[in-house]
Amino acid sequence: MDETNDDAEEDLVHIELCPSCGTWQIHEILSEKNKGGGTDYKVRCEGCSHIYLLEVRPPKEVRIKFTLSDGAHSILEEIEVDEDETIYVNDVFDYSDKLWRVSQLHLKQEQSVQSAEPNNVVSAWAVRCDLVRIKITMTEGEESKTSVKESDPEEIFVCGSIIEFEGRKWRIRAIHTGRGRTLTGKREASQIRRIYLHPPPEPRRRFRRN
Fold first, then answer.
1. pLDDT tens-digit profile of 146-165?
2. Residue range(s) defining the domain that contains residue 115
């Protein structure tokens, strides 16, 4: 059986809700014409033979003011979305070759909601989710300095393990999450607020007996 021909035939089947008989039926396309950024189709319902004009138009675009947070930096951008799209908190979208997760949606009077139609959204917030920036505290003796490490959100960090950072090796002394600091266990980068690094223990020297 020729699967290519079957696929081509399926592409020609158009099922619509007929305004005359009120049922979903296969429609035959009699003609088509580009109009208004979309297409006007003259179709015939195979159920009742009713002929009518089917107008297909792309949804209008709505511009929403988004505050995009990337680590300690935030920028305000107007992002276009389809008018007929419902936006939900935790939705992930692609913008400027980065992935962002919707964190807040506000309507009028700063009302916070979990979902909304684009035309009702006054402002929105999103955080970058394809890359996280972890605050690092490096302590050596009495001196400490801070830095930032970029990481995949799913990268695992283990207390007590040795990692290489800024050209040298360090031991993860502790991991701080939103719930406090821990000296044991492991965490994904997305769960970590800060990592505390100490120099690794010096290797034990072995002495030879004469």
1. 999 988 888 999 999 999 99
2. 61-128
